[in-house]
């Protein structure tokens, strides 16, 4: 369970045989509580904007905390998983970075969004996979190993893919400094992830003792990001809330459905198709919020803040539905 924008994953992904590790149970609890925590943070930012609006410059550091937690939960086995099934991971990666950016651009046009909101929706689509996708894949009895592999690679490649895609699709709405965006992603995503991974490799069992706390630390950091983003555009949110929610629900829902269809069309089987659904439809909205705040405006970060809440709710509901339809014991870690 990996990535940013909801609880950081726990290592030792469940395989469908035996019970999950303690850290996995902590991650699942955090995923359940996370939407409530973020809703509370959003309400706090909306009702008392003056308390949080001055912390906009701290958003990248909060994201760095989330990504460091992610790195702590990673292991070399995650990268070996990519090597075992490269074409399947490539299919998931391609689906993610084609479907979600394309949907963001299409929705911006169909809903006639303002330039700031359009850029924000597109930026959410251009972000890598979201953290909770791995946990939700497990709950849906999906292919957890594939989910982890796609999430890991999409995050590592984000500095190379997110800025040019944003420039291509959002450049018609607002100026996009892709070079500066690359630098920001390297500083707030890749470096903290690598640092966390190195600490995990060097510290060994000492890190294992604190893995259960990582989902909660990630959740608190993301909640703080949402509070700051909402506070920065509290007045605009009151008039644009319905439009933003509609865009987010359509974006996430279509992503989940199209991701699942890609798995079926690729003849990957139902467990892998479930993983594809969540890897395509769930985004690293913490990164999107950070980039939107730094490069566009607080209003452009609103879609990412709403996405942070909604995709965890929808993911949990879809996972529960899939799990009920799956044969007992279905699902694989690869």
UniProtKB/TrEMBL annotation:
Recorded topology in the membrane: Multi-pass membrane protein
Transmembrane domains' residue ranges: 30-47, 59-76, 88-107, 113-132, 144-165, 185-203, 215-234, 240-266
Coiled-coil region list: none
UniProt keyword annotations, A-Z: Membrane, Transmembrane, Transmembrane helix
Endpoints of the signal sequence: none
UniProt feature, compositional bias: Low complexity: 7-23
Start and end residues of each stretch annotated as Disordered: 1-23
Major localization listed first in the record, in broad terms: membrane
Localization: Membrane
Protein known as: Bile acid:sodium symporter family protein
Organism the protein comes from: Streptomyces griseoaurantiacus
